[in-house]
Design a protein that fits this description.
By secondary structure, this protein is of the alpha/beta class. The chain has helices at about 15-20, 80-95, 135-140, 140-150, 215-225, 240-245, 260-270, 285-290, 315-330, 350-360, and strands at about 10, 25, 30-35, 45, 55-60, 65-70, 105-110, 120-125, 130-135, 160, 180, 185-190, 195-200, 230, 250-255, 275-280, 300, 335-340, 365-370, 390-395. The protein has three domains: about 10-70, PUA domain (Archaeosine Trna-guanine Transglycosylase, Chain: A, domain 4); about 80-190, Transcription Regulator spoIIAA; about 210-395, 3-Layer(aba) Sandwich (Rossmann fold). It has a seven-stranded mixed β-sheet with strand order 16-15-14-17-18-20-19, sandwiched between helices. Strands 2-6-5-4-1-3 form a six-stranded mixed β-sheet. A five-stranded mixed β-sheet has the order 7-8-9-10-11. It starts with 7 loop residues before the first strand and ends with a strand.
């Protein structure tokens, strides 16, 4: 039996069952004792109430998730342990065809719980790595991760940027600032299925770009030929460029951010599209309310998360109902609607029921053509269903 000098977390009776099924989260209410007074970001060893080993994780005092378990085996979590985990994540992407892919050189290398790194993600932007930690324990390991990646990929990496200042939970004495861990290159032109996009990892949302919609953008190309397209909440125009690449007659891109609209225009021009692309900086709800009926026969709704926490689910559902109803009321007959939710607190059934209610209110008959999720480089641990955060529906609106 492995001996540890870490603080010990003892669970209440019955609270060990989720860990026995390899779920990596331990909530504060499940903890009976914190022996050794574990501090934020510290490694802890977890036992059940009878003293049986359950796993190793990082402790976090703030927030409802007190421990994120990174191993259910009795190991020593040194550099070689993390190197093996990173190599496993890279091997998965190699099997999926992302490594050295000239048509698509932007993808996720590490996806949190899905790759056994609870509270940590890493994205690859044609040479630039972006780290983003959602737990202090993972944030403290970023120098180790940097060294491992530079050892494994010395010729692939031009810069490594930590973008965790807005994702780390508050902790006493810790004031994280976004910073380069290696190099200084912040901007790259990336390729996605041959389409070009300008990405700035410092200024862009998330880690710089919405990688998780890649396969859904590719699907959109199939439906775009000859269509008059409206892309709501367009951000930097990923869906807009995909529609134009698919042969859309025209595309209108809408976002409240002028910065996003400017990038949308640049990305359209970068791919040779200008004359049939209109980009507007305006409120999406106001635009939908005022636009004429039947103007568009393909609409994309990809709003920011309406529910980041479980206590606002009801309010979020009303938001999804409202925006889908507005789109269904205005879209032309026999048209296509791509609609999404990236709210982790909204499950697939809840989102689907909200869209169904919107169709009833709009008095439109709707068929589901596709049920969408995040791509394969954002894997979902079968033991952690919460990892399936992106939900989407492709609808035929009669």
């Amino acid at each position: 039996m492995q001996e540890y000098n870490f603080p010990k977390i003892i669970l209440k009776s019955g609270k060990e069952r989720s860990l026995q099924r390899f779920h990596p989260w331990i909530f504060s209410g499940a903890i009976k004792k914190n022996i050794g007074n574990a501090l934020d970001g510290e490694d802890v060893v977890v036992y059940d109430n009878a003293g049986k080993f359950l796993g190793l994780g990082h402790y976090q005092k703030t927030g409802s998730i007190s421990v994120r378990v990174y191993s259910f085996d009795e190991i020593l979590p040194g550099r070689e342990f993390w190197k093996e985990k990173i190599l496993n994540a890279i091997s998965t992407r190699k099997v999926l065809g992302y490594i050295d892919n000239l048509q698509t050189n932007v993808f996720r290398i590490i996806h949190g719980e899905g790759d056994g790194f609870p509270g940590f993600i890493c994205d690859f932007y044609n040479g630039i790595l972006v780290f983003q930690a959602h737990s202090l324990g993972m944030w403290k390991l970023e120098e180790t991760f940097k060294d491992i990646f530079l050892e494994i990929w010395p010729d692939k990496i031009t810069a490594i940027y930590d973008k965790s200042d807005k994702t780390l939970p508050k902790s006493e004495g810790v004031t994280p600032q976004n910073r380069f861990l290696f190099g200084s290159e912040s901007e790259k032109i990336v390729s996605e299925y041959g389409m070009k996009f300008l990405v700035n990892v410092i200024e862009g949302q998330k880690t710089g770009y919405f990688i998780d919609q890649r396969e859904n953008r590719n699907l959109l190309r199939k439906y775009s030929l000859g269509k008059t397209v409206l892309n709501m909440f367009c951000y930097t125009g990923g869906f807009s460029v995909s529609s134009l690449k698919g042969g859309a007659k025209s595309v209108t891109s809408v976002d409240a951010s002028q910065t996003a609209i400017d990038l949308t225009v640049k990305n359209g021009e970068l791919n040779g599209f200008k004359d049939n692309h209109e980009a507007l900086a305006t409120d999406a709800f106001e635009y939908l309310d005022k636009m004429e009926k039947n103007r568009f026969d393909l609409i994309i709704l990809d709003p920011p998360a309406f529910a980041k926490h479980a206590n606002v689910v009801n309010q979020a559902v009303k938001g999804y109902q409202r925006i889908n109803r507005a789109a269904m009321e205005k879209i032309a007959p026999n048209s296509i609607l791509f609609t999404f939710s990236c709210s982790q607190a909204i499950d697939k059934l809840t989102f689907r029921m909200a869209v169904m209610e919107a169709s009833i209110q709009a008095k439109r008959k709707v068929k589901i053509l596709h049920q969408l999720s995040q791509p394969e480089d954002h894997p979902i641990s079968i033991y952690h269903p919460e990892g399936e955060y992106l939900k989407g529906l492709v609808l035929f609106v009669e």
